[in-house]
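S2.1 Query sequence (Flagella cluster protein)
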Amino acid sequence: MADRFDQHAVRHRMKLLRDDGDVTLYENRDGVPCPACGDSFDRLLLTRRGAHSFDVADNERFCVAHEDERLVVCTHR
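Output structure tokens follow.
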């Protein structure tokens, strides 16, 4: 996998759901692969915050990739 997930390169394949400057949330619309496992993910969360809390539904897994200045979290159903 690449050292950094480039959301701008695949932006046309995802729908932006939220962006407040510190947290960005996308919905995967076209099978973009997860930067951690390579499988297609459902949602992508990018955050610069040092800590982030989120709920995960039953039968849902998540992958985490730590980059220099941000955390990348992908959820999979």
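The beta strands are 14-19, 23-28, 43-47, 61-66, 71-76. The first strand starts at residue 14 and ends at 19.
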